Please model this.
Amino acid sequence: MEIRILEERTNPLLKRHELRFEVAHATAATPTRDSVRTELAKAVHASKDRVVVERMVPRFGTAVTRGEANVYESADAAKSISRAHILVRNGLKEKEAKTGAAAAAPTAPEAPKAAAPAAAAPAEPPAEPSPAVSPPKAAAAAEGGKPPSAEEGRPAAEAPKRSKAHPKKE
Model:
């Protein structure tokens, strides 16, 4: 792994040096953030706890990773100025547990569910079709099939007469 510093700027207001770097890793996978922090600390002659890697972006199709890092004047300055999630990524801070209603409420063990009665009363046989329902519909419903149309269940005399919307012109 070979690190080149592409650009270095001093930011006295935030008490840091801002670096843009490039890591060549020809025979290896993308390096870890921790290994890059170690190499950057050696390159700029600083302790590892003062170096914070902001981002690392591997270049597609090549064995090159570019990134940005900050080297602070002290470890306390690094922890007070850098964002919390960046410090967690760099291993300088522990991840905080979420504090919310779900986390605050203690979880009670679930009560055992009542078992369904194994010897339930035998199912009643299906009721006889009511006289209002015609026999073909009741038979189809009992078989689980689609009930026949209204005209199939009625005698021919009871079938409704269809009117023509547009009678033939004479």
Remarks:
- The two ends are 98 Å apart (CA to CA).
- The first helix runs from residue 33 to 44.
